[in-house]
Every structure is written in structure tokens, then in C-alpha cells.
Queue: 3 jobs
Job 1
Amino acid sequence: MGRPTTFQTTSFAILLCLSAGVKAADVTVGTAHAGIGQKATGYLEVPAGVDAATNLPVIVINGAKAGPTLALIAGVHGTEYASSLALAQLAARVEPSELAGTLVILPLLNVASYLQKIVHINPIDQKRVGGYPGKADGTQSERIAYAVYHQVIEKCDHLIDYHGGDLDENLHPYSYWTNTGKPDLDKMSREMLFAFGLRTIIIKQPSASLDSTALKLGKASITVEAGRAGTSDPADIGVLIDGTLNVMRYLKMLDGPATMSVQHPLWISKLTIVKGEQEGIFYPSIVPEAYVHEGMTVGYITDYFGNKIADVTAPVTGVITLVCSVPTMKKGDNVVYIGEIGDDPAGAAGSH
């Protein structure tokens, strides 16, 4: 399908409610139009403004039966490859005839980051994509957020935000759970995480992220991470695909029982980001999931001649969730993330 040339301001149309007991309906997102029991691809168009226009690939899988609308979004950071590949491969596997409800899949939000191999930000405006609901008259990153908010987040019932280690980040899979203080919403998002199956769960407070934005609208949502250092390891991709399919079973979008495989989650109550204080070459001495104690050396920095100029030590006791994966180090760069181990936020009654 060729790239679109027009911008649709009301491009997400659901002709009938997809709630239980109501017939399924045609679904249009951007230029992707899927009839009942169909799969379609197209683009969510972001028009030019103070800078260039962009087109975000979108896949709509409209089930043959009624059910919820689940948004799957990746590529906020364009070089977190495993998550984008996982969604593209997942879309190829899901058959509309077997689906109850609708999948709206955005595998790559930050196209410029992907094409230019730029970590963390959108090179068009040097900003991070986010800050929902964005701005219709803002820079490209803000217009992307605006389009995604109004055409996808507002219209879905649930959302999963996919991330992973960027080109300069090494991590093992983990997830985020946002504590909203709303019991029913928190219970459902928690169960979605248990269905997804990642043992390490980081507790966070509401923010302007994708999942928090959806949660503020009353939509149970989670964030998951797998992939690292610019790789597209089949194991990482498989973790994301399998977890998503199991969440879909939990939501009754696919037949079969959902497996709640996380029996003893490792709850992370606080993340501490350790930053480099010198420019030079970084050498890590730990790996993700290692346990460290306060004062322990987690790496060191040399100058460009190989002379050690600083040890990097852990300011807190906890588990390593992320390590800088490249030698490049300048003052202020992230070196490691350390998660302080906490209690199950639901108490003993909520242990799984």
C-alpha cells in the first residue's frame, strides 16, 4: 500500500460499540480500514507543522467476534528493535477469524529515530516522543503524541506499551506497574502483568507515559521491556509475543485459559539511576539482574589512554535492572539502574 497523502483528523471510527453483546463493526485507524473479520495496514498521518510531517505504520486486526479494543504500541524509542519486531511478527500470526475484539498495533512511533539510528529522542526536534496528549501545533514529537492520544489511546479499552534496551542499554526483561490508587483498575493492570509473565515488576507512579495516560482514562494498561543493545534476539521477541498472546487470552480476545505464570514476582519499589561523572571509556563489572550492596563497585571509567580515572559505586542496595552497553561515557550519561527490592503493593492477600 502506498504512503498516504491526506491527514484524517477523525480517523479512528468504530461504527458500533465492541462491548460484549453488541455486534462487531468495521474499524478504521488512520488509512487502515478493516471490516469484520479482516486485517488491514496503513498509516497514522502526522501532518507537517513547524517541522516535517511523518507517517506512523498501523495494523488493525478486526476480529470476527465482539470484544475489547487492545492497543499495542512500540517504537517510542526507534532503536529498541525487539519490541517493534515483536509487534510486526505478532500481527502476522493473529488471525481475525480467531479474534474477539480488535487489535490496534503501532509498531513504530518514532520513525526518524529508527531510520537515523538515534537513541532516546526524535532527531527531527531533539525531543522525546510523549507528553500526552501532545500538541496539534507543536513539534513533530508533540504532534505524534497528539495523533496517538486522540486516535488510539482515547478509543481503546486497554493498552500495552513495549520498550527494551536501546542501543546503549543492556537489560533483562521486566515490566512496569503503575499504582493509581484505584482498586479495580490496579487489580486488572496487575493481572495483565501476571499474564504477561515477566517476573521483575517495577512499581511506578502516574506520569505522562503511554500506560499512565491510558490509566488516567480508566483503561487498564501496562509497560513491558525486552531486548537490548540494538539486538533482535529471538528469545526477547518470543517473550514479548508470548506474553501478549497470554494477555489476550486473559482479556477473552483469544480462546483458551490464560496462564498466570508469575508466582513470586520480584517487586522493585524504587529505581536509582547512577550517572557517570567523568568523560571517558566505561567498563561494567556487573550484569543485569545482579544483586549489589551499597558501596559495591559496578564499573569503572578510564581516560582515552586507558588510565583508570574513576570507580563507579552503587549508592544503594538492590538489583541491577539496566547497564550501559557501550564504552562511550560522558558526564551525566546513565551508567546503571539499581532497583530497590520492595514488598508486594497488594500485601499478602495479593501475592501470586
Job 2
Amino acid sequence: MRYGYWLPVFGGWLRNIEDERMEASWDYVSRLARRSEQIGFGLTLIAELNLNDIKGVDAPSLDAWSTAAALAAVTESLELMIAVRPTFHLPALLAKQAANIDQISRGRVSLNVVSSWWAEEAKKYGVQFDQHDDRYARTSEWLDVVDAAWKQDHFNYSGRYYSVNDLVLQPKPVARPRPTIYAGGESEAAKELIAQKCDAYVMHGDPPERIAGKIGDMALRREKKNLPQMQYGVAAYAIVRETEEEARAELRRITDVQQNAAGYQNYQQWLANTQLEQRVSLEDYSVSNRGLRSGLVGTPQQVADRIGEFEDAGVDLLLLQFSPQSEEMERFADSVIRPRQQAVAQRV
């Protein structure tokens, strides 16, 4: 299992807790990233939103791309999975930008391609907002251009959404054959696109048995297309305490839903513009990306056992959220990551 985490570019993950003691600042995220390399985390997901959908649109949020470029220069081993929304970036220019950051990081950049869902944000920033399946049609062309730009020069492309003529991109990314492309989605359009053109499938939080079914479905799609096996990641919010009672008390605290919270309206827009396989509860609203459904809540042994179930289901990567991030990542590393790594070493 690889352990990744969401970089707290929004100042937290809890919609019901106003101050999580993790400010949206370069100072905080840079210290966090450098420390995470030392305690067992191998990847950080840097979300891309120009507005803050967790704490409300008037709250600060960090820019994903300039933050990633800066982190590339101050970290040594951390994979930088940068979220990117095709409607906000011309593909050839994004390919150039990502290749440059990959050079700075010596091959540690990857993309998490997200077909935009927030219509109001797009309107505020003057960006085209397509309907659901149109967004995936655009993303398909976008991926074609990015992939070709990374692998060849003097490339021509003419599509419905994008065109390039005699495109040259140098230097190419360090990563070969290209930086890893992750993507997530639960609609048929999303799953077909991801199976065809991406390297890894990342999923919202769900129990291991449900995740196993999703992995099986995606694996079958890949097999039918004669494509190699994918990587699989799952979002999860982790609460680790000495006793189960303490963990459950923290769970009750963060799921005390306040429907007048600043992020609630943004959450409603996400539901309206996203095609999900199941209904989302107000408890899911409390923590982003359905993180609580993964069930990483309990004692260190309970959480470790749950991670083992995800491994058995075929999961390669956990994309974790914590609050407050720095303190809880330290706790997770001490009580879960290190003991599991030691157990594996002993078996070997």
C-alpha cells in the first residue's frame, strides 16, 4: 500500500468545523510536505479549485500549479499529483507547464484529471462550462494532445475542441513513458474514458467490498481494450485513537451537520452537476470525497485491519485526509504506517 494525502490547500476538509488549525498558506503546506516525506507518505494530491468549496467562496484557497512548482523545488521524493481541469487549461500549454515542473522535481509529477463540476466557479472566472458528457468529450481530446505533446514533436491535431499545428514541446518530462495520469468518475462516460486513456483510477470513499467491485469492473474494461493493469486509489478520512470510544467521539464532533455552513451551497452545486452511483448523505457532506465511507475510524489495529481489506480488494494507494493535518498525520504514521511496514519486513 502507498500512503498519499490531500494537501490542505483549502485550510481543511471539514465543512462543519470553521477553524481546523491548518491555514491555507505556503508556509503550512511546504512544512507539511517536507515532513510527510520523512514519516512514510509518498504522494500528495494538490487539488485545483480557484474558489474554496469547503470553507466557502470568500475563504482563501491556494493555486494548485504554482504551489506544485514550489513544492517540486523543496521536496525530494514526494510524488506531486496535481489536479487539472481541462476546461481551465489549453492542453498544449498545460503539457508544457507540467513537463517543466516534472523537470524541476526530477520525474515526480503526475496528473489527476478532473472534468469540472462547479458551474458557479467557472462563471466567476469566465470559463466555459459544458454539460456532463460534453465535459468528458472535451477531456478525451485534451488527453490526446497532452499525451502526444509529451511523447513526440511536430505533432498535428484537429478536433472538435482543440487543435494544434506542428507542436514542439522541449524539454520532455523526465517520467517515462509519461507522467502518470490518474482520474476518477462514476458515470459511464467517465469510466469508459478512464479505462481507455488513463493509467490509474481514483475513487471516492467506499467500503472495501464496494471498491472491489469497482476495481473488477475497471479491470474488465481494460482487458477488453487489451491494455495493461491500472493502479487504483481510494479517498479516505482517517481518525485514529487509542480507543474506539475516543475515535467515535471525534467522528460525532466532525459530523455535527450545520446546513447553514458556508460550504453547503457549493456542495449542492456539486451534487447537481455530478453523476454518482449512490445517494450522498449529510454525513458525507461533513467530510469531502465521501472519505468517512472508507471506514478508517478506530484504534490503530482496527484501522490497520481495514487497510488490509483494501489491499485485498486491489487498492494500491490511499488518498488520506486528516484534521488537523500535521498532528494527525504524525499520529497515523506512528500508529499505523510504521507498524504495518515493520510487520511486512518481518514476514519477508
Job 3
Amino acid sequence: MKRRPSIATYVALVGIVALALAMLGRVTAQDWRTASQEPVGLAPDPAVTPEPVVQVYAARVIGWRGVFGVHTWIAVKPAAAAEYTVYEVIGWRLRWQDTALTIRERAPDARWFGAAPELVADKRGPGVADLIARIDHAAHAYPWAGEYTTWPGPNSNTFTAWVLRAVPELEADLPPTAIGKDYAGIKLIGSAPSGRGIQFSLFGLAGFTASGVEGLEVNLLGLSFGVNPFDPSLKLPLVGRVGPARSFSASQASAAVASEPAL
């Protein structure tokens, strides 16, 4: 006898469709040419912050792709520097140059074509100067600077994860909507995107992550599901991280630098 889908199944499907449509309307109702790129106040003012700073950000991408994913980047400010330097990969730059890697001075917490950024990691103080040097080295060693594929990667989130793996002291837990963070080329087993723990990834299309930073994640066709008991939250496709707001302590910087990378 053929079983009929339960009412709960119908409700779940309707809810998912409604959520997708609502998010589609939210992320597509803007023109990239006029969308705001103003800072939102998450970065300390360099004029009154002499200590070195590293921050990691994520923001919904523009257009229909914003329903599913975010764009991520890393911002650094060396000690006594007057400006932040932002490291990111921007795919459309390949239209007129041979690299998508972009290193430039800009507001670290600027809206990404209208979308407010989320602060993913924040390190400051003693020892952070060394992290900044290692970030710069890892960025220049990124192997897919001349490639860009929205799904499953390599893309902007693949770049951010590449750098984070090289600097695990940042302890950055990229949101589940950072599609491409699990892409590692032909390498099937390695560290999680944070650089801690372990990850199995089949070309970014399927995989499993277990880490003291990310918790447990399952990747299915580039969509991540998971739970993080260390930073209590659920991780869901489309929705992203669900849980209390992240908290950051500048005093953690020294301890993080002193710790050994865990594999």
C-alpha cells in the first residue's frame, strides 16, 4: 500500500518554499549600482585603535544567489595603521584581469551591495601582528586565484577558508551559507575550514566536518547542516546560523596565538 506524505511533511515543504520566496524578495529587491556600501560600525576606528586587528566578515551576496549564500572576506589593520586592508576574492574581476584575488584598503565592515555584514571572528592585541603576516602569505599562496565557480567552488568562500586553514588561531566558524568553504580541490581529507578538527570533502559537493570550532557539519550538494555545541547554534541552509549572537573577547588574541593548531 502506497504511503501518503504526512501533514508535517507538507508543512515543512511549504515552510521551506515560503522562506525561500521571502528571502528571494529580500535579496533581489536592490540594484547593485545604487546599493549601499556604507560601513555598519562593527570595526574599531583606526584613529583610536593603535593595536593590530584582524576581523572576518560574511554578508549575503546580491541577486538570487543571496538566497543561498554569502560572500566572506578578511580585514586586517597592523599596529598604528591608518587604514584596514581587506583580502577577498571577487569573481567578476576575472572579466578584465587574470586574478580574482583582491587586496585593497577599504572599510572592513562595509555593506556588501546593500547587505549588512556579520562579524565572524575578531582578534586584537599582542601576537596579532604575526597573524597578519601569515594571512598575507596565505592569501598570496591561494592556488585558485585565476578560477571562480559559484558552486561548488572555488569561490570567495573557498579563498577565506584557505586562509583560515593557514591561520587556525583566528578560530573562525564560517556560516553554513558560505557555500564553497568546503571545496579543497582533489584533496579529500584535511582540516576543517577553521583549520581545527578534520574534514572529509568530495570536491565540495558532499562531506563531513568535526571540529572544536565548527562543531559537527554535514555537506550535501554544497548545502550545510549542523550543530555547534561549543558556540551553541544550529546551522541550516538558506537560514544560516541560528543561535545567540556571537561574542568576541579581545583578550582571547594572545591565548589563541599561543595555542597549537589542532588537526
